[in-house]
Amino acid sequence: MKKSTIASLTIAALALGTTSTASAQTQDEEVRDKESRLQIGGYGEAVYSRNWYSNDPTRYTNPSASKNKNAKEGRFDLPHVVIYMGYDFGKGWSMGSEIEFEHGGTGSAYEKEYFEAQEYEHETEKGGEIELEQFWIQKTILPELNIKAGHIVVPIGYTNAHHEPLNFFTVYRPEGENTIFPSTWHQTGLSVWGRVSNFMRYEVQLVAGLNANAFSVENWIGGASHVSPFEFDPASKLGTAARLDFYIPNGPRIGLSGYYGSSVNNGYNQVEGSNFQKNGTITIGTFDFDYKGHNWIVRGNFDYGHLDDAWEITSILQNQTSNTSPFSKSYVGDQAVAYGLEAGYDVFSQIPRLRKDNQKLYLFGRYEYYDSYRPASTTQNGKKVQHVDRPWTERDRMAVGINYFPIKDLVVKAEFSKRFLKSPYNDEPSFSIGVAYAGWFTK
Fold it and tell me: What is the pLDDT of residue 14?
């Protein structure tokens, strides 16, 4: 296979978060040789949601008082609109890029701060809500060995590795992983990856470390991937990520991923003090799978994360964060967990006319559990002391709905979902409907 062909296939496979099998590569090789070196594509989502629960700022601090306040809220949203562009330079060299528009925004916004001060805050994020999510240069040596440098997706968990809207049934991204991890998680660094026959794909990355100042009770490390308020990403600390995917013939794809890295003092400058001498080491392990066959699609994930020095990080955020800092004051847990399972059946497979037209209608159900805050503890005066618990961070969620594919690259989604919270907190039912696409615009 020509190196230019390999590079062109690599652009397509990586930007959409999928990897073609060797047989598919063989089938496409002659076509790809005649196609443009420039590849343009993308994905996008438009959503309407109706929430039948209070969006009052006190709904977790005073659940009984907020139960019937603002109990019907509707909203339109553009969660993600993304443009891909890649180019095959030849001789094994290629580039890829991805620009993302989140929620249709352009820069800054006023948001309600629910969890601590319960007031409106004016928040400005790096790049606003228009981000360069990927930009990398790659050298393909062999299909089994590729080296990529730049701003890249960190494929920790199912959602980060497969974040396009055709890869999950729910209208929004799976809620558990989308809460406790950055999503989409992207950092600047170096990646080595390859595909071994039809059986396995591997990837190992060295990337800029996360910043503990951006951790929180409601999202664990989820807000820390791309929130640098500076014109660069501090990288005094580095992180290591790795992923393995196994493709079983006529069976499921099974994925394993992990992350390890320090997070304290990964800011603009080094800060002195006993708490700042801690490492804040993050350790994450995940398992995920998907199966497609017999008109079924089944997907599942399990994620566990641990944060060393969570007690000291909370002390830093609570007591040593400046009021003018771009980071919030928040408690941080030393553990977070998320797991989920979804399954859908294509009912159009039983209707010959629709099956022949390649239309699909999946009836699906999803269950997931996640907890973004398990309070840290320490020993003081010989006694174990624990941070105050926040039971509302522990949630079960169920969703049922449909995915209609009139054509391969476009889906119409609808679902009814409900979060189940522990007493005395109120459950949170909602209905969402949306349309999404993912594909290439050039051949």
Answer: 46
Contact 415, 401 (CB under 8 A): yes
Compute, in degrees rounded to 10, the torsion defined by CA atoms 327, 260, 181, 114: -30
Distance of alpha carbon 380 from alpha carbon 312, whole angstroms: 13
The model's pTM: 0.86
Question: Roughly what angle, to the nearest 10 degrees, separates helices 22-34 and 3-15?
Answer: 110
Residues of the chain with pLDDT under 70: 1-35, 70, 105-128, 226-231, 267-275, 320-328
d(CA 195, CA 32): 19
Query: How high is the pLDDT of residue 223?
Result: 86
Closest CA to 302 of 341, 333, 253, 335: 341
Residue 424, class by beta-carbon neighbours within 10 Å (0-12 exposed, 13-18 middle, 19+ buried)? exposed
Our CA dihedral for 332, 113, 170, 14, rounded to 10 degrees, sits at: -70
User: pLDDT for 294-304, tens place per residue?
Assistant: 999 999 999 99
pLDDT at res. 322? 57
DSSP of 32-65, one letter per residue? HHHS-SEEEEEEEEEEEEEE-S---TTTTTSHHH
Rounded Cα distance between 167 and 299, Å, is 9
Question: Among 291, 415, 300, which residue's Cα sits nearest to residue 367?
Answer: 300
Distance CA 221, CA 210 (A): 8
Structure confidence by residue, pLDDT tens digits, 75-134: 999 999 999 999 999 999 999 999 999 887 565 555 555 544 445 455 555 434 788 899
H or E stretch including 15? helix 3-15
> Residue 293 and residue 249: Cα distance in Å, rounded?
11
Q: How far apart are CA 180 and CA 334, in angstroms?
A: 12
Instruction: Kindly report the backbone phi and psi dihedral angles of residue 75, in degrees, each rounded to the nearest multiple of 5, phi listed first.
Output: -155, 140
